[in-house]
Amino acid sequence: MKDLIKLFKLLIPKLPDAVKTKINKSDLDRGGGGVFTNRRKRSDKVLVPFESFKNIWEFNNERLNNVFLNGYRVLCTPSEYFMNIKKLVNIPVIVRYQSYEELSQYPAPIDWGSIKNSRKDYLDDDVMFIQDIKNLDKTAKKGKSKYVGPKLVGQHEMDYSTDDEILNVKMCLLYQVIKCVDFKDHMSNSPIYEKYLEYSKKFENSSLYVNNVKLQEYTTKYGYTVCPILSQFPNKKHAKILFKDILNGKIEGDLGREEFNRTTTKINLHHVDRLISGKLNHNHKNVFLGTAAGNYIDAALRNNNLELNDLIVS
User: Fold this and answer.
1) Helix (H, G, I), strand (E, B), or coil: what is residue 128?
2) Nearest C-alpha neighbor of 55 from the set 130, 135, 136, 157
3) Percent of the chain that is helix, strand, coil (3-state, to 5)
4) N or C: fewer beta carbons within 10 Å in the chain?
């Protein structure tokens, strides 16, 4: 495995920038802004919603410390915090106020005017109090939107991954890139093209491949890399992941407008199994290259609690 990792580290910097970026960005969380970090490494500090802390982790601080190696904080509403304050003693907590009603109903025992604004200024057992109030009423009769307190404290627990698993994911992504049906068309002139083929062969003898049934399905089964979602449709033509679509992946949105106001990319990262609390979701058996169309379809199905099989008539 050490030789494979060494070869991986040699090859990644030699890829075209767009492809290299696609793989390396798998390091980063999805980003949320406000209290959530924005595209920070997935092994960084996490925020665990109180409901998850209660129902999944069962108030067990030791379990959380053993999983989230760079720390965590429990994200509470004011009611969750003040109704469970005894159970949250010595637990790193964030109390997030999201309405003026909460500020009135659950007064914070702090001076909002002298609050510390950086997460680095808090000890682990210090309670963070935050105002993250969004008022979409344009007249702002109930008060304007505002943010008070530290920002970018941590990522959602469902985005977390270990450093080892982050590397595993990236190594699998490189293999999927090499297995793109048009990889040779674009990379055969590279002085290290044969090294990429060598990586592919060595990778197929590694545990990352041998013990990864889904990866085998989305690459070897068809002879090239396919989108996990579109490959389930009868017409497989649109399921191909193309190297050229990673190189030039920008999609202009809202056609018909003089000015585009949305962009995405043709090829994205796709978590096949749905993200859930209490699980290491970002792992090499769950992260694959996928198409924008596949991701849109999958998101629509998940929002309606459907599976693709519910729509496809055999």
Assistant:
1) strand
2) 157
3) 40, 15, 45
4) C
Termini Cα distance of the chain: 42
DSSP state letter for 39: S
- Model's pTM, two decimal places? 0.88
Distance CA 306, CA 291 (A): 19
- Residue 121: both structure tokens together: 């200024």
Rounded CA-CA distance 184/190 in Å is 10
- The β-bridge relationship of strands 267-271 and 128-133 is unpaired
